[in-house]
Design goal:
Helix content: 25-40%
Strand content: 25-35%
Order of helices and strands: HEEEHEEHEEHEHEEEHEHEH
Radius of gyration: 19 Å
Structural class: alpha/beta
Largest sheet: 5 strands, mixed
Number of helices: 8
Strand order of the largest sheet: 3-2-1-4-8
Number of strands: 13
Length: about 280
């Protein structure tokens, strides 16, 4: 490996592979850090929701296509995307009590491995259950690697880009089958939750329910949509019926300026690109 890394440096190349893993699909990004260019960016959507064991066969199938020489990689990172997470203020966090932070909010098993991310600048920890079998597979294949939870990247990116306003702002990150709601005030996390949906009615129900529970006014509270959504989508149209200060904000919230492959919709890779 040392020889490969030396060769990469001499060839003005530093290759980084990032993989976003969820039960609904996988996303892959290959960054050439030396040229500041994204060389590959693609998503594999599953026809049916997978179970954690099936993720390995999907990963093996992708790597078997030889889209990159695995021994040419200088860095590998994994982004775990699931609903098994909870944000904890630093003042309440204790590494010995990880399971306690999750057991009342999400379903965990006795033998689940629990990890956490520290959002150092904001005195927050994100406690979560990663896909342990995916971590084991990546370690066996590449050795040392880094991993984070998708919600850590989402929340940290939003806080970094937010204005220091005295008014709450609602951010809704939309994916194919689920969405996250993040509420910020004064660049501080007020609320985070994730919901699954099938119809637009599910989407607006959970969004309005959250607004009501937080005692916010849907006609006055700024609400920003990002991710897999456009002004032509049914989700946007039904949200606009009830929420007046509504806008879509994707490109402005990307924190890097990497050169992307042609015809790439960067909003579909919002979390993965912001993980780099």
């Amino acid at each position: 490996m040392t020889q490969n890394k030396t060769s990469n440096i001499l060839n003005n190349s530093f290759k980084e592979l990032s993989i976003q893993v969820s039960l609904s699909g996988l996303s892959f990004c290959i960054l050439n850090g030396a040229s500041h260019k994204i060389e590959l960016l693609e998503t594999l959507h599953f026809d049916q929701k997978a179970n954690p064991e099936q993720l390995i066969s999907h990963l093996e199938a992708w790597f078997s296509e030889e889209k990159i020489a695995t021994d040419s990689l200088d860095k590998v990172s994994v982004v775990h995307e699931n609903e098994l997470s909870s944000f904890i203020p630093k003042s309440l966090f204790n590494e010995r009590n990880l399971s306690d932070y999750l057991k009342y909010n999400v379903k965990i098993l006795e033998n689940d491995f629990i990890s956490y991310d520290e959002l150092k600048s904001y005195d927050i920890y994100n406690v979560y259950v990663p896909f342990a079998n995916v971590n084991n597979y990546i370690f066996d294949k590449f050795g040392d690697f880094e991993y984070k939870h998708a919600s850590s990247i989402l929340v940290e990116t939003l806080i970094n880009s937010a204005n220091k306003s005295n008014q709450e702002t609602i951010y809704v990150y939309v994916s194919k089958s689920h969405f996250e709601i993040v509420v910020l005030n004064q660049k501080k996390l007020i609320h985070y939750n994730t919901f699954t949906y099938q119809q637009k009615e599910d989407f607006i129900y959970y969004l309005l329910f959250t607004i009501e529970q937080l005692n916010l006014n849907p006609e006055e509270t700024p609400t920003l949509l990002l991710g897999d959504i456009t002004e032509e989508s049914d989700l946007y149209k039904i949200a606009y019926t009830y929420i007046k200060h509504l806008s879509i904000n994707n490109k402005q919230l990307l924190t890097n300026t990497y050169s992307l492959p042609k015809n790439t919709n960067s909003s579909n890779f919002y979390i993965l690109l912001n993980s780099l």
